[in-house]
Amino acid sequence: MKLVTSHFLSPSHRLHHARAESVLQTADVLAAVLRDSQCAGGTQRLPKAIGKSKAMEMVLTGDRLSAQDAQTAGLVSKVYPKEEVMDKAIELAEKISRNSRLINTMAKEAVNKSFEHSLSEGLHLEKRLFHASFATHDRKEGMDAFVEKRKANFKNK
Fold first, then answer.
1. Phi, psi of 3 (to 5 degrees)
2. 56-85 pLDDT tens trace
């Protein structure tokens, strides 16, 4: 069985695919240690991801969460059999890479900051990024392609 630790909740908040036999665990309490945010940050990130009650149970008991339960809780986006997980992750990366890298970066920033900001601050950031996107070539190309019902050819500018 593959063990996925609280490092899974890394500061980058990337999309995660899990192998069906994976488990998620915040086992710090079992070792009588509490790691700092530079190391893992599970006590700060986990409640924002799955809610205080479930996070408190996991942090205080060190109980494991199956890949399926992690998906239900929103900690992983997909669960695949071991032999498929890498192919599926690459497939997702290829799909994402067909979008404008510049706009993907803005969108990722907005989602990541939602864990740090209030809703009001997050909406303000989203509005600033929206306005900034209008200064990009890719925004024009994307909107033109949509109107013309064709595939966009992004230049990441």
1. -100, 125
2. 888 788 777 788 888 888 878 888 888 888
